Amino acid sequence: MPPLPLSFAIRFLIFVAVVFVLHIVVGAGLVLLALFGLSLAPLSASGVIVLAVAMGLLIGLLIAIIVSPVAIANIIALPVFAIGIAALVTIGTIAGLVATGTITVGLALVLIALIGLAALFVEAVWFVFGVHRLPLGLLGVRGLTSMPGVPFRLAELPDTIIRLLNRSNEIQPAKDGLSTNFTLGTGPNAKTATGQTFMFGAGESRSLSDPLQYAMGWTTLDSIDRRAADLAPAWSSSLMDPAAATEQFWPTIARFSTPFNIVPLERVTAARATVFRGALGAAWTPAIEAMFASGTLHAIDMTMFASLDPPTTAIPRFTPVTLTLLDFAAATQTLAPILVSVSNGAATQIYVDGVASPSAWLYALQAAKVSITVWGIWIGHVYR
Q1: Poorest-pLDDT segment among 53-67, 163-177, 257-271
Q2: Cα end-to-end span (Å), the chain
Q3: pLDDT confidence of residue 179
Q4: Which residue segment(s) compose the domain that 213 sits in?
Q5: FRET pair for 149, CA 20 to 30 Å: which of 5, 42, 134, 242?
Q6: Of 139, 131, 136, 160, which is closest to residue 149 (Cα–Cα)?
Q7: Total number of domains in the chain
Q8: What is the overall mean pLDDT for the chain?
Q9: Residue 310 sits in a domain of what CATH number?
Q10: Is residue 98 within 8 Å of residue 108, measured between CB atoms?
């Protein structure tokens, strides 16, 4: 999808401004109609019918907007039924009252204007305080067909803007708490500075030489760095030691992923085994078949990400498409990963514990955790 000439936020604000201008124009038109009715000289029967039809359509339009959330996003899709009913009712009522001499034409137009203003007020309250689905097509992002929807509520917009503008102030104390010193680099290129300097300092771009240095992102605010200190050695070993990474794989997911959602761990059934055999080919070994036969074979299937576009030179980042097989050990009540299939959407590589090189196996386990985390945050937590 080509880049938008205007930012999404600007387009949204323009959309809101246009809707409010339309409300003002319609309201002003109804006021002018009421004033016109007060000073109106007697009209012919045909004039009464023309005005009644016009006002009937206007009131029908307002009613349609109230009853149809789609109306705000697409005026062409207004329910014809609601417009027609409102027009017929208005025509019949006005024509009958005027024909019998019950009311004058001017009074009839004043009443129509008042009814229209009341309908406009009700519609405006619905639009401001109701929750609506953002019309992505009108905002130039019709191609985002995989998005479940973008809800918005105008009544919350001012508070949201104020909170966003104040967001930098809210996170500043945590940034100021990145005061622990770290040394990056060796020899003459070595530099010792605080985590805040390395992470947010102008012109800073250095590589880490030890997984323990990831702790520079742990703020001293509320003693978070001290309370999390015991986790650092184990987590660091999972990035360097294949045995530790294998041992910690499932316990890490089971302990830390539940705030997002329940991980889709499944015991492999006969139907799923057929699918996995086809996907893995020769990598589905007799040993794996034996695990399946004994009922200890489990899987975490993250292949739904295969529908995403593969990385390109311009956009090299991607969500790994992974399939992880795990074996359940009844004696220790543990799950251990034995195979990870990793794909970027264009090419697939299968990694097997004890067969893949240590660095490759470490990469495979990290790729699996990345795809599980993406699933948990976006699909498991936000979408559901």
Answers
A1: 53-67
A2: 26
A3: 93
A4: 176-227
A5: 5
A6: 136
A7: 3
A8: 81
A9: 3.10.450.60
A10: yes
